[in-house]
C-alpha cells in the first residue's frame, strides 16, 4: 500500500529584518533612532551637501541643497549657517558678499530663536566688507531692545566699532593723541557700550582691557576727558543761552 504523501512547501516570510548598520558622515538634525527609507535618503543627501562643501564642490552642494530644502521634513531656516557657506565663492577664503548680508538680514526676521547669533554673524560680515558704520548702525538699532540688550558680546562689538571709527581720518571734532587722531564723541560712546558689557559680564577681559585703554587715551594731551565732555545737544544749548552782562563794580 503506497501513500500519496506530499511534503508541505516551506513557509516563506517576506519580512526584511531591520538593519541599523547605516553609517552617516554628518549628524543630521532631528535624527531618528529607527529611520525609514525616506529618512535614510534625506540623511544621505545631507551628507552629500556637507561632503561637497568640504571638497569645495559648491555647485554640487547647491544642487543637493535645493532638493533637501524643498522636503517638508527639513527646517532649512535652522540650517542658516550651512546656507551662508553655500553662498561662498570659495570655501577656503573667509570673505563676505552682498548675498550673504541680504540672507542674514532675512534670517534675522524669520528665525527669532537664533536672532542674537544671526545679528553677531551679520555684524562680522559687515566688518569683512569694510562697512563699519553699517555694522554699528545695525547694533545701535537692535541693542536697546530685548534680548539683544542682555548680550555682552554685542555690546563689546559696538564698543570696538566705536573705537575703530573714532580713528578714521574723516572723523569730525578729532583730537590727536600720541600720533593718532581720535573722535571724542565716538570714544565716549565706546565707553558706554563697554561699561554695559562689563556690567553684564564682569569677567569679560576684552571689555576690561579696552576700558583701561580708553582711560589712558582720555588722559592724553589735547583730548577732552569723558567726564568733562559735553554732547552736541548740550553744547548747542549752552551756546544758545543768553549771556548776562557783568555788573560793573561801583566806586562807592
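^ Assign residues to that structure.
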Amino acid at each position: 500500500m503506497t501513500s500519496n504523501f506530499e511534503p508541505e512547501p516551506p513557509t516563506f516570510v517576506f519580512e526584511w529584518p531591520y538593519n541599523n548598520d547605516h553609517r552617516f558622515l554628518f549628524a543630521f538634525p532631528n535624527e531618528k533612532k529607527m529611520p525609514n527609507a525616506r529618512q535614510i535618503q534625506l540623511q544621505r543627501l545631507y551628507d552629500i551637501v556637507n561632503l561637497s562643501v568640504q571638497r569645495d564642490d559648491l555647485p554640487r552642494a547647491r544642487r543637493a541643497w535645493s532638493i533637501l530644502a524643498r522636503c517638508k521634513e527639513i527646517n532649512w531656516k535652522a540650517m542658516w549657517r550651512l546656507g551662508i557657506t553655500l553662498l561662498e565663492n570659495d570655501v577656503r577664503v573667509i570673505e563676505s558678499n552682498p548675498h550673504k548680508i541680504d540672507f542674514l538680514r532675512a534670517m534675522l526676521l524669520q528665525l527669532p530663536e537664533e536672532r542674537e547669533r544671526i545679528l553677531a554673524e551679520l555684524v562680522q560680515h559687515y566688518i569683512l566688507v569694510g562697512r563699519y558704520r553699517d555694522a554699528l548702525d545695525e547694533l545701535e538699532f537692535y541693542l536697546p531692545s530685548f534680548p539683544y540688550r542682555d548680550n555682552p558680546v554685542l555690546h563689546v562689538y559696538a564698543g570696538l566699532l566705536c573705537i575703530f571709527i573714532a580713528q578714521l581720518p574723516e572723523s569730525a571734532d578729532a583730537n590727536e593723541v600720541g600720533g593718532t587722531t581720535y573722535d571724542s564723541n565716538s570714544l565716549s560712546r565706546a565707553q558706554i557700550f563697554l561699561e554695559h558689557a562689563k556690567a553684564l559680564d564682569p569677567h569679560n577681559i576684552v571689555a576690561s582691557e579696552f576700558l583701561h585703554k580708553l582711560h589712558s587715551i582720555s588722559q592724553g594731551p589735547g583730548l577732552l576727558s569723558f567726564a568733562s565732555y559735553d554732547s552736541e545737544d548740550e553744547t548747542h544749548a549752552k551756546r544758545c543761552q543768553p549771556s548776562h552782562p557783568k555788573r560793573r563794580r561801583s566806586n562807592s
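DSSP finds ten helices and two strands in the chain.
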